[in-house]
Amino acid sequence: MSQIPREFIQQLLDRTDIVDFIDARIPLRKKTGSNFFACCPFHNEKSPSFSVSQTKQFFYCFGCGAHGNAIDFLMQHDHLNFPEAVEALARYAGMEVPRNHQHKEKPTPQPSLYDLLEKISQFYQQELRQKPEAITYLKKRGITGEIAKTFGIGYVPKSWDHVLQRFGKQAKEKQQLLETGMLIKKDDGGFYDRFRERIMFPIHDKRGRVIGFGGRILETGEPKYLNSPETPVFQKGHELYGLFHALRANRELTRVMIVEGYMDVIALFQHGITYAVATLGTATTAHHLQRLFRHTTEIIYCFDGDTAGKTAAWRALQVTLPLMKDGIQIRFMFLPDGEDPDSMVRKEGKDAFEKRMQQAISLSDFFFQTLAQQAELNTLDGRARFAKMASEQMEKLPDGFFKNMMQEELAKKSRVTVQPQTTIKKFSNKPTIKKTRPPSPLRAAIMLLVQHPELGKLITSPLPPLEMNGFALLNALLELTQQHSLTTGTLLEYWRDREEAQLLSKFAQMEHMIPEKGIKSEFLGAIQHLKKSANDQSIERLLAKAARETLSDEEKKHLNTLIHTKRTTTTPEHPL
Q1: Helices 70-77 and 82-93 meet at what angle, rounded to 10?
Q2: I need a labelling partner for 192 at 20 to 30 A (CA). Which of 7, 110, 481, 519 fits?
Q3: Before 464, cis peptide (omega within 30)?
Q4: Residue 460 is inside which H or E element, if any?
């Protein structure tokens, strides 16, 4: 598989001045300190809150929370995936993207698979024109010939080897059909078609390439709908049916509706609602939402109004919570029993359906209404249960205005004040003085190291072992910053797609009141605190062992050294 070497990505970011790069797209006129400012391109605002740091090679919006390096900016601003963004940035920098080729004896299969799936799609469309029963079925469902052509709807005959005989005459072709999921292998080594006697809906990626199919059985039988399996070009948890058509039909997607099926998307599109997408046999995932947020800031979930629909909506809400950045609007639309978007839009038309959409319930209202049904809000213990459940769920929210407003709303509904640390205190009319808790030495060290990677070269010897959450991350950061000359932007690139990425991004955005001249001493002071903690921890461990059994001569010597170090070393108070 072809991959972009990490070394090249670092060179590319090193060669790119993020200020010049962004300024070519968004004029950066106002400079405060070492940062440049502009109105954010990712949300509407009147006062500039979009900050670009030349020293950190990092951008951050104080309004909506958008952040990252030059690659992230391209991904968000130009709606590109990671490889596309690297290619675009390389063109800007006048560099050619090299590739690391693994398994050179087997070239990557994707291009030929796309071609094969496109040919099969054309074949299905030809077969549809020769099947009156299938055309009659589509007409009964209200699908016009024009909309069928727009979505490439086709038909596969009732045969066990129709595609196999047409496209799999050679062994290599059979293997490709197997890779695309169009064939199933028999126990005896033979093959047969996955899809038979079905209306076929090609699934496109956002570039319009066919990556798989969904098939709806023409007569009765199970399963009613059958999707392509996971393949090298199709991952169900990432792709959305109809997104390509929505992007093509709308210069700008002001909102997107998520529905459940192909026919829902097609019926809505036919009635002028060209911004619906459907998941492909899975619940909505974080990948789906992240892809949609590149194109829109408003999403409407559409579900049945029965218990199953409400349960599915709650699951979708929980997936959405960690992605609820400021500026995003999520609503939930519940249809009458027995209705779906397909039947509803055909029954009442576009205007009435969109009016119904405008009455969709907001995420916050659905959140509190759902939890309120599980607790008695007219009793003390009921309100306490309600506050506890809500607080636990709201911990998933990213920091920002929306999270603060949700906490304020919870305080009103439960008559208690919810602290950011999820502790609950009794409501009081007395004014309170909010104290800012200083970061721990470990948090301070990580924060300063992320924002000033050059500090890592000040630590010339390994830190002593310390059992503390986050200490391994600090060591990894130290090792990386000692080996490479990095900016904040290039440092964060090493953690892209890893679980620590979001945490490190938060550290990169943190504000502190340390003067520029004091950053070095603050960092070294935090490191000294951690060394002292490690020393104390080792002493406690050896003393505990001595209480149980006799220490070895080497352990006794080590303990004496640690105690001597503790007595002779004084650590100044860490002022952060």
Answers
A1: 120
A2: 110
A3: no
A4: none
Q: How many residues does the chain have?
A: 576
Range of weakest confidence among 61-70, 98-107, 355-364, 520-529: 98-107
The string of pLDDT tens digits covering residues 263-292 is: 999 999 999 999 999 999 889 998 899 888
276: three-class secondary structure by DSSP: strand
The answer to whether 267 and 142 are in contact (CB under 8 A) is yes
User: Considering the entire predicted model, what is its pTM?
Assistant: 0.58
Q: Which of 267, 266, 272, 270 is nearest to 250 (CA)?
A: 272
Q: Which residue has the higher pLDDT, 569 or 104?
A: 569
Residue found by looking up tokens 């209200």 in the block: 142
CB atoms inside a 10 Å sphere around CB 47 = 9
Distance CA(506)–CA(514), nearest Å, equals: 18
Could you give the CA distance from residue 190 to residue 297 in angstroms, rounded to a whole number? 49
Token pair recorded at residue 170: 């050679």
3-state secondary structure of 456: helix
Percent of the chain with pLDDT over 90: 42
Q: The tokens of 231 are what?
A: 């393949």
Peptide bond into 223 cis (omega under 30): yes
The tokens describing 320, both together, are 């959405």
Band (376; pLDDT cuts 50, 70, 90): confident
Q: In the numeric block, which tokens belong to residue 197?
A: 């006697």
CA distance 216 to 156: 10
| DSSP-derived secondary structure for 4-19 | --HHHHHHHHHH--HH
How open is the CA angle 329-334-338, to the nearest 5 degrees? 155
Q: What is the pLDDT at residue 3?
A: 78
Token pair of 204 as six digits: 């496109």
First-to-last alpha carbon distance for the chain, in angstroms, is 47
Answer for the pair 307, 316: CB distance below 8 angstroms, yes or no. no
Helix, strand, or coil (residue 242): coil
CA-to-CA separations, 366 to 335, 362, 395, 524, 542, in angstroms, rounded: 15, 6, 17, 48, 54
Q: Residue 18 corresponds to which amino acid?
A: I
